[in-house]
Write a structure and sequence with these properties.
With 174 residues, the protein is of the alpha+beta class. The protein has one domain: Jelly Rolls, CATH 2.60.120.10. The chain is built from 3 helices and 12 strands, in the order αβββββββαββββαβ.
Length: 174
């Protein structure tokens, strides 16, 4: 069952996507993380909201099934091809990706609730924007650190062990 997004989160998403990037809201520290198979750049952070740009520079690629227990997320594909499944159901298929790249359909926002188990396989290098509402008083860091599931890389697992802000790191191996 998908949890409803808060009105505040919906308002934030609309304002962010229709406005200009507030470059003053780019964190000066810990804004870039190299998870080995994916690179994250926080382009906006004002708790409880955050926006991360994710870039996967190599293909084929994959990320393991997981949840983000303290983060409600809206994702927008920007470029490239990635197959995405949520709760075992394919969301982004090769057919929908081909339609999107031929401009037959617009980029569709994808809601990923904190309880949604999701995974993906990159066919080409790809990038996506992740708009986030951090919940339960957890300080925003990266969704790659607020992760319930097996790590997708040795670099990610290493970050879980050495993270500066331990209170926002949830890394539960199944």
């Amino acid at each position: 069952m998908m949890r409803q997004m808060s009105d505040g989160f919906i308002k934030f998403v609309k304002l962010f996507l229709n406005g200009r990037i507030n470059w003053q809201a780019v964190p000066r520290d810990n804004a870039i993380r190299n998870f080995g198979n994916i690179i994250s750049f926080v382009i906006y952070r004002e708790s409880p909201y955050q926006v991360e740009l994710f870039i996967v520079p190599t293909a084929p690629s994959s990320f393991t099934e997981h949840t983000h227990p303290n983060v409600d997320v809206i994702e927008f594909g920007l470029t490239g091809k990635v197959l995405l499944s949520i709760n075992g159901e394919p969301i982004c298929t090769e057919a929908t990706l081909d339609d999107w790249q031929c401009i037959l359909i617009n980029t569709v926002p994808i809601h990923i609730a904190p309880t949604d188990v999701h995974s993906g396989k990159g066919i080409t290098p790809y990038a996506f924007l992740s708009l986030q509402h951090w919940l339960n008083g957890v300080t925003p860091t990266s969704v790659g650190l607020n992760w319930n599931g097996e790590p997708s890389s040795t670099e990610q697992e290493s970050m879980w062990k050495t993270s500066v802000n331990k209170s926002s790191v949830v890394c539960i191996k199944r």
